[in-house]
Amino acid sequence: MTIAEVVPSLLSGLDVPGADNTLGLPAARRVVLLLVDGLGHELLRSHAEHAPFLSSMAGREISAGFPSSTATSLASIGTGLLSGEHGIVGYTFEVGDEVLNSLTWSRADDRHHDLRKALVPEVVQPHPTLFERAAAAGVAVSVVAPLFHRGSGLTRAVLRGSWFRGAAGFGDLALGALAAVREDRSFCYAYHADLDTIGHIYGPGSEEWLLQLEFIDALVSRIAARMPADSVLAVTADHGMITAGERIDFDTEPLLWQGVRVIAGEPRVRYLHTESAEVLDVWREYLGDRADVLTREDAVDAGWFGPISPLAADRIGDVVVAMKGSAVIVRSQAEPMWTGMKGFHGSRTRAELAIPILFHSVPSV
User: Fold this and answer.
1) Using omega within 30 degrees of 0 as the cis cutoff, is the peptide bond preceding 67 cis?
2) What domains sit in the chain, N to C, each tagged with a CATH number?
3) Cα R_g (the chain), whole angstroms
C-alpha cells in the first residue's frame, strides 16, 4: 500500500470514475486531505505523547515510495502513480541538458534560474492529475498551500486541475480547508511544510521538532472539530526522516568524481550519470555497507521505482546510490545549504519510507 493510493481511495466515495478504494478509507461527500511534510510513521509512533489527537485517529502505515522525497511524493499524491511512471524522480534530476530542482523548478545549481519556460511543467509531468479527473466528474477540487506555491512549476506539474488558495499559517490553512468542503462532493488537499523544515534544521525528535508536532496535533484536532456532516478528514505525509550520522563530502573526495558526468538527487539518494562503467565498482567499494549501489537496470528490476516508463528511466541516472543507516553524501561546495543540516530523507530505510494514513469521520445528519 503506497501514497499513490491515498487520493483514489478518497475520491472513490465521491463517485469519481476509475477511483478505487484500495486503502479501505471511509466514504464521504466532503473530504479534506492534510499532508504534513515529514510526519513519518515511525516518528509519530515514537513521539505519540506529543500528538495525542493524531495518535488516537484510526489508520494504518503505508509507504511513501522511492525516493522518499517531497516532490516525488507530492507527484504521487497528485497523479496516483509512483515515481517510475510520473517521472518526478527526486529532489534534483537530469532532464535533457538541465539538472532540475523539482521543488523550486530551477536549475539545481542556481535557484534564481527559472526553468518553467525551458522545462514546461505540464510536459515534464504529462500524465493527467487526479484533481483534473475529479473536477471533470463534477467534484469541487481545491488546494490550500503556502502562498508562494501558486503557479509554481511543481504545482502546475502535479496539482493542476484544482482551485488554489494560498495560506500564510495555521489559521488560514484550517479555515481555508474547511471553507473548501462546504458543498456536496467537494475535495480539498491541504499541505503544511514546517515540520519538515524544523526536522532538517534541528533534527527529528529535537525539542524544536517536538513542539512543532504539538502545534500540528492541535491544528488537526481543530480542523476535525469543525468538519461538516458527511465528511472525512484524512492525514498523511510524504516521507519520514533520519538524523544524519557520517557525512561523506563528494566535493572533497576526488576518487568519487572519476567517470561521473552529473550527480543529482540529494544527500540520502544520489543519481550518477556516468562516462565510465568503472563508477559502479568504485562507489561500491568506497561506500561498502553504508549504501546500496545499483545500476539503473537493477534498481528498476528490484521494483524500487514501481512500474517504469521511458519518461522516468532517462532521469534516474546510470547508477543509483541509496544510503543505509544514517550516512549522507553532501556537497559542501555545490550544495552548502544541505551540508550543515541535521535531518534528512530520500532513501529506503523504514524510518524514511513509512508514513501514516489517518482519518477522522463525521457521519451524515
Assistant:
1) yes
2) 3-241+349-362 (3.40.720.10), 247-344 (3.30.1360.180)
3) 20
Q: Grid coordinates standing for 247?
A: 557525512
Inter-residue contact 231 to 361 (CB < 8 Å): yes
**104-108, 109-113, 147-151, 237-241: lowest mean pLDDT where?**
109-113
Question: Taking 90 as the threshold, does the pLDDT of residue 111 lie above it?
Answer: no
Looking at residue 355, its pLDDT comes to: 98
What does the alpha-carbon distance between residue 137 and residue 126 come to, in Å, rounded to a whole number?
20
DSSP letters, 40-71, are: -HHHHHHTGGG-HHHHHSEEEEEE--SS--HH
pLDDT band at residue 364 using 50, 70 and 90 as cut-offs:
confident
pLDDT on residue 323: 98
How many other CB atoms sit within 10 Å of the CB of residue 104?
21
Q: CB–CB of 74/242 below 8 Å?
A: no
Amino acid at 326: S
Distance (Å, whole) CA 122 – CA 175 = 30
